[in-house]
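Regression test attached.
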Amino acid sequence: MQKIPLMLAKAGMVLARDVFRGDSPVGMPICGKDTVLTDALITRLDQMDIQTVCVEGHPVWEEGERTFDELLQNLDRRFEKSRQEPLNSMLYDIYKAYLAKSMGG
Amino acid sequence: MEDKRSELKKIIMDTRTLPTLPNVISKLNALSDNDKASVQEMARIVSSDQVLSARILRLANSPSYGFYRVSTISNAMILLGVNVVKSLALSSSIFAIMEKNSVGLWEHSLGVGVAANLLARKLGLPECEEIATAALLHDIGKVIVSLKCSEAAKEILGLTNERQIYTMEAEREVIGTDHAEIGGWLAKSWFLPDKLSEPIAFHHDVDKSLNHRIKTSVVHIADVLIKASDFGNSGDRYVPVIQKIAWDTLKLNVQIMTELVAEIEDKLIEVRNFSLEMMSE
């Protein structure tokens, strides 16, 4: 599943989560999970001021977006100077787990 | 070195005007022409621009208005009125356009604002909006350095790359001070309340924050998180060391941080969307 800005949504993508008004998961969903997006639907969502949608798979590879291995390498580099500190080492582990989850699931 | 520092301080204290990102202005203009534009909506847009926010806060806190200390954009909007904010926004548009790298810094600031707000809410702290405002403004000193001392700014950047040190260390070497201290001077000269100026001045030295340590701790942790997440571009390529005093002050633990990281990452997608929208205009 990937959460993407609505402006990057394309016809043919499949919703992985219900879409709610105002992006808050209360009340009635305005568009259900498993719906296949169409251009008309995307326009409609845009008019309702929906900012983001969750879609199946990882369909949007944006410019500069990296694979899991590359993301991990970058994470290593960012923590290079601070990872020996116990608190930073813990934060590193949290981010590593988060990356694995967001790229794999 | 001391000369350089005091010379710089003089320049900062003289700074009455700062440039702002023109996209924010056009967005704000489009909104205020629309009768339905709410104060909250305008506050949201103004808050996305650190220089414009600072200008409005500065005005709201200046002796010529003489109310009480105002520390959030929404309060400033209500106190100053939509028209004053609009004319402020208009006058800002004539100032020089920020360099390209400021967009990265702006995104970083937005991200830290979001992270600080989420953390403050998660911990049930009072005055979340103030904390978010301090977070949004925390790197304002960097804007001043690149604006007022562009040569020094290049030297600082060169030094961080060459020796692989933190921006802060390079700043101290080149200009004898750093962006946090400069931000603190600026906040003081704008009559911002301590609860905003302290987190700005001490977000890298939480132990020096005596009156608003909780707020300063939140901004520090939010800054670390956004650097770890690689959102925006603060100029620093390395994640700073988490200061234990901040960790202890907020009584953080692994579970809070794990949940927070997921919440922040979720929210950052919206921030990116917003920033993409602004750039496409």
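Expected vs. actual: identical. Residues 254-280 of chain B form the longest helix (27 residues).
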